[in-house]
Amino acid sequence: MRDQEPAPQDTERRLSTKEAAELLGVKPETVYAYVSRGQLSSRRVSGGRGSTFDAGEVEALARRNRRESAGGSGSGGELSVRTRITLIESDRYFFRGVDAVDLATRHSYEEVAEWLWTGRMLPSTTFTAPSASVAVARRAVEALPEHASPADLLRVATIAAATADPLRFDLSEGAVLGTARTLIPTLVAALPPAGHRRLDEGPLAHRLWSRLSVHKDPDEDSLRALDAALALLVDHDLAASTLAVRVAASARAHTYAAVSAGLGVIEGPLHGAASGLAHRLLQDVLDQGDAAPVIAGELRAGRRIPGLGHRLYPGEDPRARALFALLEQIPRAEPALLAARDIVETTARHANVDLALAVLTASCGMAPSAGETIFAVARTAGWIAHALEEYGERPLRMRPSGLYAGPKPPQPLPE
Fold first, then answer.
1. pLDDT, tens digit, for every residue of 248-296?
2. H-state helical runs in 143-236
3. SS3 143
4. Starting at the edge strand that comes first in sequence, how are the strands of the sheet with 98-99 ordered?
5. What's the whole-model pTM score?
6. CB atoms within 10 A of CB 213
7. Exposure class string for 258-271: b at 16+ Cβ within 10 A, else e
8. How many other CB atoms are there within 10 angstroms of residue 192's CB atom?
9. Cis before residue 145, ω within 30 degrees of 0?
């Protein structure tokens, strides 16, 4: 047998538990709590009972703790997660390094989703829903009351589809991609028709149209606008719903459960439901023929004006710009486009994608909640891309530590 040589890491500077605790400013038992949470790695001392820790790793954790402590006092500290999926900068955004608007306006939603998942372009790809999943998802959705929200319908359909998939706990890349390609069309297939028969064949945008619009025969430009809206909305970095998905994936929840976590977040008026508020505002402007009194009434009531501005884009939201350009090719969208322009000019602010979605839904015979459905179906592909990426990371790394601000213990037992 060969003589054993010291492993390269043995030459690294190692710290004892006491030294690590002093550097971190915590008790020794807290050091082991960091290990259990996956925030530190340890190595047993040869022939001893203690552990040692990589000095660089401990120092990095100490710096991170100091930043988080500063952020907790109101200095704006934020969670950062390394990702290879979406980059947002200079009023543009990119999917795996490629301009997202160019992708969305030149490729179908399915093709953009495949690019997001695999980094490969698969021309003319389509998603097919398994009949067993569709059947169980439709039964579950049909059992809901009429006032159920789009997120309710999609969340129930997701859970139902999961029960029909005995392989849902397989988190290998191939299995997750298989789930992705069948879950999205299953969600669309489970939705009730919008006043006429369901369409279950053809591009996903065409199938979704039959669930959203009372216009039975959409023109090519309208379908292109819907397809582009799906592709434009497929991902947007670590939005609130995407973070929820990554937390679930970090705990190794299966793909359906991770998507369900995202669907639970988008019902907020500041996220997926924002387009519905913009739709109603736009309809009020169309009814009155002037944005000024509508905007004044909203402000007087203390309500935020939806469809305007975005914290990640100092200038114009590129998604709105691209969708407006496509909507200009649809003659019946002209009144809604003029109303949206009136809102922008009255408020002197840039439109965001929620206002563009409102123009699409208001001009294409869709309900105010249709924008939320479009957003959720589109974003499901992005959520799965993030879940897939998170499955390749250390488990439970999305487990932050709380900054306790309650009464200092020990407190007396309450009577």
1. 999 999 999 999 999 999 987 777 788 999 999 999 999 999 999 999 9
2. 150-163, 173-190, 204-212, 220-232
3. coil
4. 86-89, 92-95, 98-99
5. 0.81
6. 22
7. bbbbbbebbbeeeb
8. 13
9. no
